[in-house]
Amino acid sequence: MEVPVGFVAKLWIFLSFLPFFTLLLLLGLLKGLIICPVALAIIAVGNSAVVIGLWPAHVIWTYYCVTKSKRLGWILKILVLLSLPVLLILWPGVAIVGSILGGIGYGFFAPLIATFEAVGESVTEKWKHCFLDGCWSTLEDSCTVVRDFMDFCFHSYFSYMDELSEEVHENEIPMEIQLSMLPSGFLVAILAVPVDVPLITAIALWKSPYMLFHGWKRLLEDLIGREGPFLETVCVPFAGLAIFLWPLAVIGAVLAAFFSSIFLGLYGGVIVIEEGSLQMGLAYIVAVISLFDEYCNDLLYLREGSCFPRPRYRKNKNDINEIARRQSIEQDGSHSLNLVSEGSRTLKRAIQQYTPVQVWDWLFKSCEVNGKVLLHEGLINVEDVQECILKGNCKKLGVKLPAWSILQCLLKSSKSDSSGLVLSEHMELNPANFPRDRFFDWFLAPLLTMKEQIKGLKLEENEEAFLKKLVMVCKNNTPEEWEDTGFPSGDKVRVAQLQAVIRRLQGIVGSMSRLPTFRRRFKNLVKVLYVEAIQMGLSPPGDTGSSKSRFPHARRKSEEGSMQISTHERDGDIV
């Protein structure tokens, strides 16, 4: 489909698409009304059963771990224990209500959006897909949501609590608060909520009409001129759906501002305790309004800055400079995104923005390829693979295998001229195409630091080979562990630096492993490795061969993806 040129052609396309869009919208709404109750029942009932069933265990284990923890000082520990009943009582209600709202939203909008996606240029048999897409897949994804939620409640939560109750290092100082600052912190929190919540909500409401009409204007321009987000796909019906749903996005933004303002106000109490000053907490109450207003202006491309005063609420000037630096980086990033959305085809193709999902897919594909390599080299035991599948104990394999894959990436990136991370020959993460996700930055920034540390150490090839092996076979807690391994370097300072990098890398992977989707995807990966081990004749001791039929799903998945994986290995697509 060619992009129309001229006013008459654009007007004709705009008028001719209305009946087509209306029929798709009615079909999508009908599918949403039919699928929504079933998806709602799956998500709401499943998540509610998980929450209610595990609530007694959560209560007991939370109190046990907080009481046992040496990472918390006595004053902070007493405050946490006193506040836990409120949080634990609210948790089931919040989770159930959130599951109901999420089930309604996902069950209704997923079939609706899938209906419009079915008319894309790359889709064949569009009429068939318009009726079928988004029906069964929505129900399957609803079951996946329940499974991921169960993994988080059953595995991730207990993992967080276990880490809280672990023994601390000798030089580690427990987190503590000054008892004398508690009254001031409570006072600021009580004052901030009635001040910040109405004002921040008022700012959001005041700017919502501009967001609504400016967004409609941009979407209509993109629809008629085939620019912006609809330039490459040339999918006019989907543009119409975006225009139709834009008011819901504006309402969602206002509601998000209201709920976030509550936590922004309560954070004033934290400022008092961190800075040890009541004056700084009061200054934060005023400053946070200015910060929110400036954030809205940057988001909507209005004038820079804010008309509200912004008193200083941090004693350390370095903190202020760091905040200003981050704001300037975010503004530069937002301006670059604005240029991309103006309809420049060249710039949009030049800057390919990666998403967290793409990086997540790379990690598991890399683990799959590297896992097979480690099986052949004997660095992964089939007993570890079987224990992960049958007993669900994936702590060892679930940390060391991803850490080994990421280390491969860091070693290759340190030898390149890239300012970011070289994931493959055709995929490179750099400051221009990093996913715009603050949660993703928590993992990415330390990896960039470790890349520079490895680059400064200037490892030799034999050191790299030993380093990859030691990641899998050693705990890497003390330099003495490497004395009998044959590591080429005898410099204990160098060894300690490398072990620190590995420990930090394993800590990052440990945090990743607590994400809801990690456990599900990693267990599917381990099943593929188990089939690979059986094909290699690496059955565990005492196995009579019946294990070949235990996981037929994993065998089918491995056979279906074997051609694609081997192609990636030949082309060097996986680091």
Cα-atom radius of gyration: 27 Å
- Estimate the strand proportion: under 5%
> How many individual β-strands?
2
Query: Strands across the major sheet, in which order?
Result: 1-2
Counting DSSP H or I runs of 4 or more residues, the number of helices is: 17
| SSE string, helices as H and strands as E | HHHHHHHHHHHHEEHHHHH
Q: What structural class results from the helix and strand content?
A: mainly alpha
Percent helix range = over 70%
Shape: globular
* Count of separate structural domains: 3
Q: What can you tell me about this protein's structure?
A:
The chain is mostly helical and 575 residues long. The chain has 3 domains: 1-175, no CATH class; 177-351, no CATH class; 356-571, no CATH class. The chain has helices at residues 7-68, 74-117, 126-132, 136-164, 182-225, 236-275, 278-299, 317-341, 345-350, 356-377, 382-390, 395-415, 438-457, 461-473, 492-512, 516-535, 552-571; strands at 421-424, 427-429. It has a two-stranded antiparallel sheet. β1 (421-424) and β2 (427-429) form a beta hairpin. The longest helix is centred in the first third of the chain and has 62 residues, at 7-68. The protein starts with 6 loop residues before the first helix and ends with a helix. The model is unreliable at 226-234, 317-351 and 544-575 (pLDDT under 50).
What keyword list fits this structure?
575 residues; mainly alpha; two-stranded antiparallel sheet; 3 domains; 17 helices
Question: How would you summarize this macromolecular structure in one to three sentences?
Answer:
The protein has 575 residues and is mainly α. The chain is built from 17 helices and 2 strands.
